[in-house]
Design goal:
heterodimer; A: about 230 residues; mainly alpha; about 70% helix; flat; B: about 35% helix
């Protein structure tokens, strides 16, 4: 039950990008293609899982007064390790993500999870929490990236080879040929508007679900009054 | 828990973290250097038509030094020959006039004095704005292909904002201005040293 709750928190109710609005700098800057979004999302997920686990493991050792510098050291180490690995083994991806890989360190969602969850919970739930929040963040990055890529260039899944190797270079799908590039979607203002649309969509779904829940509640209460009144 | 213990704990964490990163750096640095070298070769090959040369560019290099035109430090130039005849030279140029420090460029110039291509090799420009000078991010840098000191003529060698012929980069005029100037300087350098460049073995 606890794990189910952690999952819904990370993926939906407390989604780092759509509810907490954390990590917006990389979110807006890097999501010009779905693959870039996916790559940064996966990198963030790896870091979140690693830092949450480490923070949880050391939570009894680290006094509350020094916890913030300690978290910063842990997070910076994980990000640097990830950056070196990407630089060595996924060079194309490293070039395309550029400085934003290093900037994962400053993503408030990561220190936020360390402070709000990992430092108060056992190792396994903390790991799970990191993964779920990471996936929640990744889904938003991919959706945003896909939207902007499609609107901006009329194509989707370009540069998949950067992440999945040469066999993926044919994954790119051109949905509209002769598409005149719509630069606005690719520039930062387009990112803000696309994020706004996603936020609106999430809030709309939430309010629909709430309405349905309250209608269902009313129905159950009215049906119980009905059954109680039938004998008379 | 005393203050001293906390300080020691933080110091221990920092040392452990540094050790971890240093170890990883040690094991990845060769591969990173290899990647960077391979990438540079790829950039070189992009700005010179393979039909123009049949020698190994990396083996026929010169070291040039001109603080005015090519940057404060000595830079490498690559000479291209076809059937023993010189066809083009690719200069490395470093301009300090980026928005945020140096921009390193490869500038290919044919024996006739035309630009065969320009690529940004290293920079620290603003992500999302100045980095559009990179080929992977936009085609801006391709507008220099085929230009020379006479096409356009000198007063028009600049970005449009300064009355020149070249597009700037939206939100990164300083970057665009710096690169345009560096390309022009490279052309001037080659014109001034045309003979010397090919004389030295």
């Amino acid at each position: 039950m606890q794990y189910k709750n952690i999952a819904t928190q990370g993926l939906w109710q407390n989604n780092p990008a759509l509810v907490q609005l954390l990590g917006l700098c990389p979110l807006l800057a890097i999501t010009n293609t779905a693959i870039n979004g996916l790559a940064l999302g996966l990198a963030t997920t790896l870091v979140l899982a690693g830092t949450n686990t480490t923070v949880s493991l050391t939570r009894r050792m680290i006094a509350p007064e020094i916890r913030l510098p300690a978290f910063v050291i842990i997070i910076a180490c994980f990000v640097t390790a990830l950056e070196l690995t990407t630089h060595a083994f996924f060079y194309g991806l490293y070039l395309s993500l550029g400085i934003f890989l290093a900037l994962i360190t400053t993503n408030c969602a990561i220190i936020g999870r360390a402070e709000a969850f990992a430092s108060k919970n056992a190792c396994l739930p903390a790991f799970f929490d990191g993964v779920m929040h990471g996936i929640g963040f990744t889904i938003v990055l991919v959706l945003l990236g896909g939207m902007r890529e499609l609107l901006g260039t009329g194509k989707i899944l370009t540069d998949a080879n950067l992440l999945f190797g040469e066999r993926a270079s044919s994954w790119s799908i051109t949905l509209f040929s002769n598409y005149p590039d719509f630069l606005f979607a690719l520039l930062p203002p387009g990112a803000f508007i696309a994020l706004g649309l996603l936020l609106a969509l999430k809030n709309w779904i939430d309010s629909k679900m709430q309405q349905r829940a309250s209608v269902a509640k009313q129905q159950t209460t009215s049906s119980t009054t009905n059954t109680s009144s039938t004998p008379a | 828990m005393t203050t001293l213990r906390r300080v020691l704990l933080l110091a221990f964490l920092a040392a452990a973290g540094t050790a971890l990163v240093a170890t990883l750096h040690h094991y990845t640095q060769d591969r990173i250097a290899y990647n960077q070298e391979a990438w540079r070769i790829e950039q070189l090959e992009q700005i010179i038509d393979p039909a123009r040369y049949d020698n190994d560019l990396l083996l026929d290099t010169l070291t040039l030094h001109d603080p005015e035109l090519l940057g404060a430090e000595p830079v490498t130039a690559y000479r291209a020959y076809r059937d023993g005849e010189p066809t083009a030279i690719i200069l490395t140029a470093v301009t300090p006039r980026g928005y945020n420090g140096n921009i390193t460029l490869f500038i290919g110039i044919s024996i006739d004095g035309d630009i065969t291509g320009v690529r940004v090799i290293a920079h620290q420009e603003t992500p999302g704005l100045g980095d559009r000078a990179e080929i992977g991010k936009s085609n801006w840098i391709k507008q220099f292909d085929g230009t020379s000191l006479t096409q356009p003529t000198l007063p028009r060698w600049g970005v449009k904002k300064d009355g020149g012929d070249f597009d700037q980069i939206t939100g990164a005029t300083i970057t665009a201005r710096g690169i345009t100037e560096a390309v022009q300087h490279a052309l001037i350098y080659v014109e001034q040293h045309q003979d010397a460049l090919w004389e030295t073995p």
